[in-house]
Specification:
single chain, 506 residues, Aldehyde Dehydrogenase, Chain A, domain 1, Aldehyde Dehydrogenase, Chain A, domain 2, 3 domains, 7-stranded parallel sheet, 44% helix, Ald_DH_N
Length: 506
């Protein structure tokens, strides 16, 4: 009997979870050294195939740039591994001999991982390495439009793991994913944690599954070019960042806010770096292709080049155009250029001063990027602190490329392809998610202090400590109004009784 696609996908998922659970029970008994050797082999194999996997991703999805996906794959394999290789994640991870507390790590179990179409290979590498480093098994649901390259990535990881002695089934996947299979994966009784990277619907489903979940929100990232910035250098970084992999990283800048004092200089530098400014007529055509409804971005432009998007909009631009820009003065769901556009399309806002710039950036974040990231170019460290405190984000990127800076490529942030948005974005964590988020910690704690517990019915007066009596005596003397004079014993006893009575009635 031939099952239909949905039923086949669901059955494949169930089989993968069953195998993963069995494999994880064996895997969690491995030593830290053995697990580390397996993780090292996976990272090396994924890194060695980074270029081929980047090519497959671009061919299958039609998104991004091979050379840029190669860099993302290298971050997702080598950089992630290097950042976690020396961490203790199995068994005793810390002992505080002074306070007599011992911390013991234990894995979640089976992790369900949802992979986006924008970063289908790098995210698969990253989640696999982080999950196994912490003693877990992983079952992956690829995006349907990126299933081949994602599954190929997982096969490379699994083969390397098996060669190092990992149990069969530790890395599983759905080769023909469906929405129903993905939803059932997230609610499967043997799945213990969800790592969801994708559209808002999937992230919401992860948080609604009843399971612990790490999901990430959208990143409508504003970048502020303040008047003290090195304009030439800053603009080059911003253009390189916005065009990196055709804008498919969620931490990519989405709108430029520039001080009026340097606006013309910024525009000249943008043009020097291959930006095309839309006139009012062209801007209208672009708006029609960017958005398919209030607050909704046209998926056909995601990850496409500026030339391809111009073609879709029916406009002619120079052949060296890297970025399409329109000046804007409004923010809202009905303003297409103000939305999160995972493509080389920019809005340019002009601010009279830093206070006006701050308000504009807040508008953009409140539209759809709360909790994610904010970028600023300036030489004023005081201003960095001011904006850092004011912006409702989890990352403030300073004088760097926001897209790859947020994932740890150009900064000291933890290398990660899943960036938490914290309470601002309705997420459980504001961190760059990595191995330390994928295990639990139990604590052995020894008693250090004796406790004098009052028995039921014991009056408060009987439980008053010597220090309290001293305090009450002093209070009694002060109340007498004659702290410096001799007071007879009877009077002191009477005063203490009065104070004790007041104390007991409190």
């Amino acid at each position: 009997m031939t099952l239909d696609k949905d039923l086949s996908s669901i059955q494949e998922m169930r089989d993968a979870v069953k195998k993963a659970k069995k494999a994880q029970q064996e895997f969690m008994q491995f030593s830290q050294w053995k697990i580390d050797s397996i993780v090292k082999a996976i990272a090396a194999a994924a890194f060695n195939q980074s270029k081929e996997l980047a090519r497959m991703a671009v061919e299958e999805t039609g998104m991004g740039v091979v050379e840029h996906k190669l860099i993302k794959n290298q971050v997702g394999s080598r950089d992630v591994y290097e950042s976690i290789k020396d961490e203790k994640t199995i068994g005793v991870i810390h002992e505080d001999t002074e306070n007599k507390v011992t911390e013991i790590a234990y894995p979640y179990g089976v992790i369900a991982a949802i992979i986006p179409t924008t970063n289908p290979t790098s995210t698969a590498m990253f989640k696999t390495i982080a999950a196994l480093k912490s003693g877990n098994a992983i079952v992956v649901s690829p995006h349907p439009r990126a299933k081949k390259c994602t599954v190929e990535t997982l096969k490379i990881c699994m083969e390397a793991a098996l060669e190092e002695g990992a149990p069969e089934g530790l890395i599983g996947w759905i080769s023909e994913p469906s929405m129903e299979a993905t939803n059932q994966l997230m609610t499967h009784p043997d799945v213990n944690l969800i790592l969801s990277t994708g559209g808002g619907g999937l992230v919401k489903a992860a948080y609604s599954s009843g399971k612990p979940a790490y999901g990430v929100g959208p990143g409508n990232v504003p970048v502020y070019i303040e008047k003290s910035a090195d304009v030439e250098k800053s603009v080059k970084m911003i253009v390189d960042s916005k065009t990196f992999d055709n804008g498919t990283i969620c931490a990519t800048e989405q709108a430029i806010v520039v001080d009026k004092a340097i606006q013309e200089q910024v525009k000249r530098e943008l043009e020097k770096n291959g930006s095309y400014f839309c006139n009012p007529e062209v801007k209208k055509k672009m708006e029609e292709i960017i958005s398919i409804g209030p607050g909704k971005v046209n998926p056909d432009i995601v990850g496409k080049s500026a030339l391809k998007i111009a073609e879709l909009a029916g406009i002619n631009v120079p052949s060296n155009t890297r970025l399409l820009i329109a000046e804007e003065d409004q923010v809202g769901k009905h303003i297409p250029f103000s939305l999160e556009k995972l493509a080389p399309v920019f809005a340019l806002y002009t601010a009279e001063n830093s206070n006006e710039a701050k308000e504009r950036c807040l508008e953009l974040l409140n539209l759809g990027g709360r909790g994610h990231s904010f970028s600023i170019h300036t030489k004023d460290d005081h201003l960095v602190r001011e904006f850092g405190k004011a912006m409702p984000v989890s990352r403030v990127l300073v004088n760097t490329l926001s897209s790859i800076g947020a994932v740890g490529a150009t900064t000291a942030l933890a290398p990660s392809l899943t960036l938490g948005c914290g309470a601002y974005g309705g997420n459980i964590s504001s961190d760059n998610i990595t191995a330390r988020h994928l295990y639990n910690v139990k604590r052995i704690a020894y008693g250090l202090r004796e406790a004098d517990i009052p028995q039921p019915g014991e009056s408060k007066s009987e439980a008053v400590s010597s220090k309290q009596v001293e305090h009450l005596m002093k209070e009694a003397v002060e109340k007498s109004g004659a702290a410096s004079e001799e007071i007879d014993k009877v009077k002191i006893e009477e005063l203490v009784r009065q104070v004790l009575k007041e104390y007991q009635n409190q």
